[in-house]
Amino acid sequence: MFHDGYYQPKLLIMFLMGNATERWADSPEAAVQDVRSFLADLPKGQPCIFMTSAPPYGEKSVRLRQKAQDNIQAAFAKVGGQCSFVPGFTAKTVAENMGNAANFRRQASGKVKDPFHPTEDAARAFMALQRDAICKAVAAQLAP
Length: 144
Known about the structure:
The chain is mainly alpha-helical. It has one domain (12-142). 49% of the residues lie in helices and 10% in strands. It has a three-stranded parallel sheet with strand order 1-2-3, sandwiched between helices.
C-alpha cells in the first residue's frame, strides 16, 4: 500500500477486531508481536489511528473481545509508536450493543441472525458514541 507512487495517505485508520480476537485474547505476547509487525510496515511519521470495532450482541463474545482489546491496547502502550489508540469497547458502546437485538440483523422470528456485525443504524449510533474519542485521536495525529 505504501509503495512509491501508490498511496500517500494523510491519515491511516485501522478499524478492526474480528479475526484477531482469539489470538489477542489468548496471548498478550501475540498482541505485542502484531503491533510491532504493524508498526514496522508503516512509513516513519505516517499519522495513524488504531480503533477496535463495535461490540457484538452476545455477552460471551463481548467478554472475549474486551480481553482482546485490553491486550492489543496494552501492546500499543508497551511498544509505543506513532498511532493513537481508540477503544471501541467502552461502557457506553457495550451497553448500547450487548443484548440489544434491535442493533443486529434478525430473522423473521426476531432471533439475531448476525451477532457480530451491527446494522447500519447501530453503526451510526456507535460512531456517535465514539465521536469525541475519534476527534481527539484525529486532532492528535494531524497536529502540526
